[in-house]
Specification:
Elements: H1 2-14, E1 21-31, E2 35-38, E3 41-44, E4 50-52, E5 69-75, E6 78-86, E7 98-102, E8 108-115, E9 117-118, E10 127-138, E11 141-152, E12 172-177, E13 180-186, E14 188-195, E15 198-210, E16 213-218, E17 220-222, E18 242-247, E19 251-257
Parallel strand pairs: 4-6
Antiparallel strand pairs: 1-2, 1-5, 2-3, 5-6, 7-8, 8-10, 9-19, 10-11, 11-15, 12-13, 12-18, 13-17, 14-15, 15-16, 18-19
């Protein structure tokens, strides 16, 4: 009896107003200017697609994050409405690298932190840390920010003993999901400084996005590796994404997981 009832509820939730209408509740897997995927269901995004938050307020497509719990309504293969039901599922999991809370307005906040470690079989004194924060700061407005720092002493992979060459090195962060690269961010050489009395080169990344406005303070991210050129933006980071820090001559030398 319970199995039959569950099957009936699934059918009703999938087709509630006719053969050409569809309603799906689940995890937002992909969202672009042309399509949206929830669970395994994909619908076309059009100029008529509406976006709403958990309080039924109008928001923009940029306010959604991959991993959000949502409700998708489609008609004839086109998305009518995408509604965020609550904070993303990734922020609900407890981990030493992530935290989730609410501000005074009850708006969900998600923070991921990761201290990078040397890659397997790589001996380096280089260290690094990353932080990704997503916070709803107003009705229909969400701020996301990705920051990072890589510190590399001389005579440590990938640098030689000449810090004057540090500015010529290109330090890249590759983000992977389920083993597949989906975004690359290039750190910007910032300065040389003394860390515990040891001179070292510092590279930084600092990118912020509020709705459609992107501010790149340090470095740059390519968020669509399938297209030629750099598609500048802020990566849709979720818990479980893996991190590889690379340099052309050294390959991967630092790793981590959000």
């Amino acid at each position: 009896m319970k199995i039959h009832l569950l099957l009936m509820l699934t059918i009703v939730s999938s087709a509630f107003a006719g053969d050409d209408d569809l309603e799906v509740r689940g995890i937002l897997n992909a969202l672009s200017s042309s399509s949206v995927t929830v669970n395994s269901t994909t619908c076309n995004v059009t100029s008529n697609t509406q976006y709403r938050d958990e309080n039924d307020n109008p928001i923009s497509r940029e306010d959604f994050e991959i991993g959000d719990r949502v409700k998708l309504k489609c008609r004839n293969g086109n998305a009518k409405e995408l509604e965020r039901k609550n904070s993303s599922s990734s922020s609900s999991s407890s981990s030493s690298n992530s935290s989730s809370s609410s501000n005074s307005s009850g708006n969900p906040r998600k923070i991921f932190r990761e201290n990078l470690a040397p890659a397997q079989s790589v001996e380096t004194l280089a260290v690094g840390s990353l932080k990704f924060k997503s916070e709803k700061i107003d009705i229909g407005k969400r701020e996301r920010r990705l920051t990072g720092k890589i510190i590399i002493p001389p005579n440590s992979i990938p640098l030689s003993n000449n810090l004057d060459e540090a500015s010529a090195f290109v330090i890249v962060m590759r983000l992977l999901r389920e083993g597949v690269p989906y975004s690359e961010c290039t750190f910007e050489f910032d300065r040389t400084s003394a860390i515990i009395g040891i001179p070292a080169a510092e590279y930084k990344l600092d990118i912020k996005k509020v709705r459609k406005r992107l501010k790149t303070k340090k470095g740059i991210c390519d968020i669509n590796l399938s297209e030629a050129g750099i598609q500048s933006g802020l990566p849709p980071i979720i818990k479980g994404d893996t991190i590889e820090i690379t340099e052309d001559s050294a390959g991967v030398f630092l790793v981590g997981t959000f």
